[in-house]
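**Fold in tokens:**
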Amino acid sequence: MNLANKLTIIRIFLVPIFLVFVSINTANNVGLIVATLIFIIAAITDKLDGYIARSRNQITSFGKFLDPLADKLLVSSALVSLVELGSISAWFCMVIIAREFAVTGLRTVAAAEGNVIAASEWGKIKTVIQIVAIIAAFLDLIVANTFLHYFTVFSLYVALIITIISGIDYFVKNKNTISVDK
């Protein structure tokens, strides 16, 4: 269990803490502020664990599997929370979560055949854009600001488009994994 994998596990443990604070409803938005800070810290661990794994040459199959899973848990919990808070539509959330399930299914099939599908460049870009959009959406809930609202809407739609593109990219690049001829 190297440091990078420990950071990934910490990110997973931050998800329920994030959700607890999202559910705290106060007049001064303390719960949302703390939840947003926890989300940002968790997002930073995503960048940090990848950097540490690469710089120390400690990339593991466990990390290749767990890191994207931790990202999916964090992003999905935030998106569902934003639906509950009335910030985004359920269909929007479901398109993103459906892509996450589909790619996870692809990874599961590959793993059953002894292959590990690591995060692609599109997948990494997707995660960064999703995180920026989610942070903007939470800040938009905390601070009523017209510019921030327009930025939030724009970034959410960019995240949606990149999410779809990255999902297609995974399936195209790994089409041999799901070949019917096997």
